[in-house]
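Posted in: Protein Modeling Q&A

I'm a second-year student putting together a small comparison for a lab meeting, and my supervisor asked me to include a predicted structure for 2-dehydropantoate 2-reductase. I've never done this before, so apologies if this is the wrong subforum. The sequence is pasted below exactly as I got it from our records. If anyone can share the structure token output, I'd also love a short note on what stands out.
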Amino acid sequence: MRIAVFGAGGVGGYFGGKLAKSGVDVSFLARGPHLTAMRDNGLLVRSVHGDFALESVQATEDPDEIGPVDYVLIAVKSDQTETAAMAAKPLLHDETVVLSLQNGVDNESKLAAIVGPERVVGGAAYIFATIEQPGVIAHTGGPAALKVGELAGGRSERVERFVEAGVSAGFAIDQTEDIKATLWSKFAFICAQAGTTAAVRLPIGEVRTSPAARELFRRVVDEVCAVARAEGVDLPNDLSDKHVAFADGLGSGDYSSLHHDLIHGKPMELEALLGEVVRRGEQTRVSTPMSEALYAVLQPWDLRNRAAL
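Accepted answer (user: helix_wrangler)
Welcome! Here is the predicted structure, written out as tokens:
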């Protein structure tokens, strides 16, 4: 099995690193100081589940140096999806699987439009991880688990092969028969957790202990679920209760990648998260006032960060 990881940040660095550590042939596509550090010093992952290091890493910024692989893991920011898909073409052979491990619910369709829908598999990553410094990934929270599935539903051998590789690598991974519902379920949680922690600039522990902020969190989940159901996605009726309970179990100091990007002056995934909720709410005529409010509060920061690049 040969795997290319497009985007060696928190998600790609952690899961790609675990696969490489287990002996899988993994190549990372990265750039800048992070790429240089990985080439010179390998990759270090500082994890709440236990640190590990790769002394030697196959890393490049040129897909042609890697050539065709069996699986391409797309772990870039949502606004880089189409660019990554175009650049990934040298990595493809007739049976290559392109697996999205990104935030949002529209990345798979963007990938399919460029590499072909028959190649694309959906994935949901449950982890809080970032680049701490070049060559170093910090996994600070979350179960570090994946759920993967065919966009058309059901089970497949190609997904099962990847699941088996993940199990051998030592992280939790499951094949789901309804990846769309899985993606929307995660999307509902991420929009609420990311939106609230970024908007109030406080960790989830302080969000969940404030009655008003806790209700805001719940209502964002409710809105995303309503939009999903309007689009024909089957979500459980008690999903809001489950997501609030999951938030209660997170480390009290946990933030979100959206908050991390906001305070570090980086482009935010605002459009792929709350912006997408607002737009789809308008299309389906579902009211999303809480999501609209968080989107309005955070948009000036996103515009400011992008203008400063």
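A couple of things worth pointing out for your meeting: The beta strands are 2-6, 25-29, 43-47, 52-54, 58-60, 71-74, 97-100, 120-133, 136-150, 172-175. The longest strand covers residues 136-150.
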